[in-house]
Amino acid sequence: MAAWICAQSNAMPDLKIKYDLQKINKDDLTSVLIGLWGRKLGSERSKEARSAEWVIAALSDLKGQIQARDLVRFLHEAARGSEPDTYWKDRILVPTAIKGALQVCSTEKINEISIENNELNEIFNKLRDLSQEYRQIPFVRDQTGLTIEQVQTLENNGVAYLEKEEYYIPEIYRAGLGFKLKAGARPRVLALSRKVRK
Fold first, then answer.
1. Using one digit for the tens of pLDDT, what is the confidence trace for 60-81?
2. What is the per-residue pLDDT across 96-108, written as a single tens digit (0 to 9) for each?
3. How far apart are CA 38 and CA 32, in angstroms?
4. DSSP type of residue 142
5. Which of the residues 78, 79, 98, 122 has the least number of beta carbons within 10 Å of its own beta carbon?
């Protein structure tokens, strides 16, 4: 879908000429999209994550699903944030804008789900009302006031993942719920995604 949007918007007009986007395989598609967001979220020599893999993991719930509206919003926000940047010449979307777009996407996702799903809205309200001390990842259920059933609802909807008696929330939900990472922790965008797929 990202490639189709790039082709239709003329951000990458050659895509329509060179590729049948209905039939292109995953590896070729990943290569094609290097022009959109680079190979990595940094320079080629950096230890940053591979861009395509990071974007998929960041926008996915813990069921591995991405909503089309989240991807469209992400591309819009990342493009807007990339406009003033003149450093990166090899890509349309720059690393800081890619990472920054996730906050807006997450906030809007929480707002939309809160309107569409009453059960999740009630749980989200409980989580957002927690003091910042407890709005941290990973979290323990007892400190949130959530019932076992409510945590199971989060798990069933791809919003939470239990590991060693602590819960993790994927990035597409974390920022919108106002959860921070515990001191010294880095976002486990790819690690969490890989662990859940096993």
1. 999 989 999 999 999 999 999 9
2. 999 999 999 999 9
3. 10
4. G
5. 122
